[in-house]
Design goal:
With 328 residues, the chain is an alpha/beta fold. It is built from 12 helices and 12 strands. The longest helix is centred in the last third of the chain and has 19 residues, at 300-318.
Length: 328
């Protein structure tokens, strides 16, 4: 008896290339359109995709707003986002149009938390400065006062946003460096065990002023745009360090560059930017700014897990079930 492979009955489009293992898994069930070349899609291309596919699988580089979603002849009924953040998708417009949306929580928590710790170490120990000095052929050799940085042991780590990633950063920083933890969140986490060993700051300004290192872990979007602005940067103690692995729009980059240039902050470690892939020129010119190209979830295991989470949401939706990670 000869078995034939099932003919895919639903079409999906990936706006960027994903790990080969995930693309192969999706192709087992769906007619998959892959993005070639691997570059952000234009608005016209996204509109065409909405007309020609049953599901769209975007990333943070794709702006899915109400105007785009309102395209005539839209066929897409489901948007399976490759990532946990969804500020780039107009969820209100999706709800109004009956489009369901999912994301990929949990699977990128450790990878992103680890990168936040990496940025803390790089910023406090001036690792970026040291590498640039050496690569430029300007290192004169070891000296007792060369590139002296700071320690993390016993310092107060202020965490803005105490969800999965914020809590993971707190646990790692406490276990590895004995850091003291303070946090601010819209709601105090329950159960109380989630905040064991951490002090809750009801007032964000008080946390900003107290922290030796401030690490940002809140969602992007209009509500948090420039939450860390010039006024709050002035509240930070001299020699403090700012870390952002969340969304670039949360920090006023021009104000941050001024604080770093004037020496009010010791350093900053950034993985996200206001206008990605563009980066504030003033930041790029500063030695005390550690700048990474949005690597938060960039491990192979994590990116595969994200893709498999998308697959699970797609399977549930097209089977007539509730997507496990539905956000709209």
């Amino acid at each position: 008896m000869t078995m034939t492979a099932p003919v895919p009955s639903f079409s999906i489009l990936l706006t960027r290339r994903w790990p080969a293992e995930v693309e192969a898994r999706l192709a087992e069930r769906y007619a998959v359109t892959l993005r070639v070349p691997d570059a952000p899609m234009t608005r016209a291309e996204l509109q065409a995709a909405l007309r020609s596919h049953d599901a769209l699988c975007p990333t943070v580089t794709d702006t899915i707003d109400a105007d785009l979603l309102g395209v005539d002849g839209r066929r897409v009924r489901f948007i399976a986002n490759y990532g946990v953040g969804h500020a780039h998708i107009d969820l209100g417009a999706c709800r109004a149009l009956g489009i369901r949306v999912s994301n990929t929580p949990d699977v990128l928590t450790d990878a992103t938390a680890n990168l936040a710790i990496l940025l803390m170490l790089m910023a406090s120990r001036r690792a970026g400065e040291g590498e640039r000095l050496l690569r430029a052929g300007r290192w004169p050799g070891w000296a007792p006062t060369q590139l002296i940085g700071g320690d993390l042991q016993g310092r107060l780590l202020g965490i803005l946003g105490f969800g999965r990633i914020g809590q993971a950063v707190a646990a790692k920083a406490r276990a590895a460096f004995g850091m003291r933890i303070g946090f601010h969140a819209r709601r105090r986490p329950e159960p109380p065990s989630q905040q064991a060993g951490a002090d809750y700051f009801a007032d964000l300004d008080a946390l900003v002023a107290a922290a030796d290192i401030l690490s940002i872990h809140v969602p992007g979007g209009a509500e948090t745009r420039h939450l860390i602005d010039a006024r709050r940067l002035r509240l930070m103690k001299p020699g403090a360090i700012l870390i952002n692995t969340a969304r670039g729009t949360i920090v006023d980059e021009a104000a941050l560059a001024a604080a770093l240039r004037e020496g009010r902050l010791a350093a900053a470690g950034l993985d996200v930017y206001e206008r990605e892939p563009a980066v504030e020129p003033a930041l790029r010119a500063l030695e005390n700014a550690v700048l990474l190209p949005h690597l938060g979830s960039a491990t192979l295991d994590t990116r595969i897990a994200m893709g498999l989470r998308v697959a699970a949401n797609l399977d549930a939706f097209f089977d007539g079930l509730e997507p496990p990670d539905r956000v709209a």
